[in-house]
Amino acid sequence: MAQKGAHVIMQLGAILRVFEPGSPQTRAIFDLGLVSAVILALIFAVVAGIIVYALMRFRWREGESDPHQIAGNKTVELVWTAIPCAIVLALFTLTAHTMSLSDPAPAPEPDLIVIGHQWWWEARYTNTGAVVANEIHIPVGRALSIRLESTDVLHEFWVPELARKITAVPGHPNHIWIEADKPGTYLGVCSEFCGTEHAWMRFLIIAEPPEQFDAWEQAQLQPSARPVEDSAAKGLAFFQQMSCVSCHAINGTAANARVGPDLTHFASRRQLGAGIAENTPENLRRWLADPHRVKPGVNMPNFNFTDEQLTDLVAYLESLK
Ligand code: CUA
Q1: Backbone angles phi, psi at 126, to 5 degrees
Q2: Alpha-carbon gap, residue 24 to 35, rounded angstroms
Q3: For a surface tag, which of 176, 270, 276, 288 has the fewest beta carbons within 10 Å of its beta carbon?
Q4: Is the CB of 117 under 6 A from ligand 1?
Q5: Does the CB atom of residue 194 touch ligand 1 within 6 A?
Q6: Average pLDDT per run of 10 along the chain, which is 321 residues long?
Q7: Closest residue by CA, ligand 1 atom 1
């Protein structure tokens, strides 16, 4: 219940962020919205004003005869055809201009390939080969071209502050640009219903100064940390014996499957389960103990780990900075 409440608040928060554009693309969309709202408000005020004026001024009064009847007036008809045509043409031109700003033609080679899965996002940096899940870092002030794919059903990639929405269609890549003016963490959501956990298919766009971004990307390319503690070492051994390796990859170990999120730098992520919980040892333990309690419908099975196994797995995964 508390989780549901938190979700509704977050959803509302995500929607409200369209009022805080943080990139040239979303600013163009926001400005078009403002200009359209002003034009529509003016039309409303003029039409409503004329109606109210006519009702008052030409009201029937006691003893008055019918007014003079007019049938057709070319000038008036031309004027009230021309004005709406001009308004529609103006809105069309503004919209076409905004579309060219908010959705430029795709780059020949994308900077990022983002793939929607039920229910998480994978991102691959094409230049370096770094692969991440649910937390996508970008350099501030540079537009990155994204090729959007899906492995299963329709999803929709939406970061309200940074870019327009775009649908991830299986077998049909779509393109979008993403950019942030200022460093910060921007919430992204899936905005196309895609199954039971559609609401928990969140992601973060973390915009950083270019040097910080480069350092992050280099760190993501490093193989996973070797466990130092005994418990973490047992966790790694256990991870490799179990069927964890048939879904997950951990660079530098025997695990290289691509079904679930890459866990090479798992501990550097802020959240678990595509936004459902903070990435803390306690939450990770709850997740591993019964993923379906935390995120009903998730593809990860319940392995009925023992307490000791849980402790070792948590120690290992949380050491993967
Ligand atoms: Cu993916 Cu909704």
Answers
A1: -70, -30
A2: 16
A3: 270
A4: no
A5: yes
A6: 61 74 93 94 95 91 84 90 94 94 89 95 94 94 95 94 94 95 93 92 95 93 85 85 88 86 90 88 90 89 88 90 87
A7: 155
**Both tokens of residue 255?**
């695990």
| Phi, psi of 187, deg, nearest 5 | -80, 135
Say if strands 155-158 and 166-168 run parallel, antiparallel, or are unpaired. antiparallel
Distance 198 CA to ligand 1 centre (A): 4
User: For the chain, what's the residue count?
Assistant: 321
Is the beta carbon of 201 within 6 A of some atom in ligand 1? yes
Tokens at 8, concatenated? 């509704």
Which tokens belong to 242?
């179990």
Q: Which of 130, 117, 125 is nearest to 178 (CA)?
A: 125
| Token pair of 237 as six digits | 């051994």
- For ligand 1, whether the C-beta of 189 sits within 6 Å is no
Query: CA-to-CA distance for 102 and 23, rounded, in angstroms?
Result: 9
DSSP-assigned beta bridge partners for residue 112: 125, 146
Residue 197 Cβ inside 6 Å of ligand 1? The answer reads no
> Cα-flanking dihedrals φ and ψ of residue 36, to 5°?
-60, -40
* Residue 206 Cα distances to 128, 135, 139, 185, 318, angstroms: 18, 7, 8, 5, 21
pTM higher than 0.90:
no
